[in-house]
Amino acid sequence: MLRQSPSGRWRVASKNAHGPELPVRWLLAEWPADQTEPVQFWLPSLPADTALATLVRTAKST
Q1: Is the pTM of this model over 0.85?
Q2: Domain residues of the chain, as ranges?
Q3: Separation of alpha carbons 8 and 4, rounded Å
Q4: How far is it, in rounded angstroms, from Cα 2 to Cα 35?
């Protein structure tokens, strides 16, 4: 779990590619022990001081 500023091709191709940075978000990844890579990702916009249990509960509820 970490806080990350999202980016990607869609931003590079947009008119605002050189505009202000995107807001920092949480990056959560579901990575089961029996898998070689993560199977799912979430970028919730919850505050930086949000408890891990709340982040996971919110991600799993979607």
Answers
A1: no
A2: 25-62
A3: 12
A4: 20
